[in-house]
Amino acid sequence: MLQKRQFHVHSFNCIMCEGNVLETRDHVFFHCKFAKSCWQYLWPDFSAKQNAHANVIHFKEELRVPFHLEIMVLCAWSIWKTRNDFIFNNITPSFYRCRRLFKEELNLVFHRSKKKKYVNFETLISHFR
């Protein structure tokens, strides 16, 4: 979006990758080497699809729980926060930091949720501990 709006920034390349890869939504959240390692923590057989929509559909089919979207959003949020901490706070990105952020957010969602709607959510949380 910044490039389309003609913002002048140092580079439009992904800061999480070592190569010259344009930072797009699909790349940052699904195709980047760092993002893939985060997703594989949640879903060991993860392989990125062409775009975000295809990834959402595939994740829903694989996970088969009513709260699949919450899990996807939390993982994407954790990746985004890790990336931004690197850019704005000079905190070296690490898979373990991203995982910790994911677990903290997941736990907060569980405590705010209606227990009837999120059956098996507690089991899922214990899987990530």
Structural commentary:
It is globular and about 45 Å long. The model has no long low-confidence stretch (mean pLDDT 80). It contains 6 helices and no strands. Helix 4 crosses helix 5. By secondary structure, it is mainly α. The chain has one domain.
Record the SSE blueprint.
Layout: H1 25-31, H2 33-42, H3 52-63, H4 68-89, H5 95-112, H6 121-127
Helix pairs in contact: 1-2, 4-5
Domain Reverse transcriptase zinc-binding: 2-39
Organism: Brachypodium distachyon (Purple false brome)
Protein name: Reverse transcriptase zinc-binding domain-containing protein
Tell me the number of strands.
0
Number of DSSP helical runs: 6
In total, how many domains does the architecture comprise? Answer: 1
Mean pLDDT: 80
Provide the gyration radius in Å: 16 Å
Shape: globular
Question: Could you state the order of secondary-structure elements as H and E?
Answer: HHHHHH
What low-confidence regions span 5 or more consecutive residues with pLDDT below 50? none
Q: Name the beta content range.
A: under 5%
Domain Reverse transcriptase zinc-binding: 2-39
Protein name: Reverse transcriptase zinc-binding domain-containing protein
Pfam families: zf-RVT
InterPro entries: RVT-Znf
How is this structure best summarized?
59% of the residues lie in helices and 0% in strands. With 129 residues, it is mainly α. The chain has one domain.
Main features:
globular, 0% strand
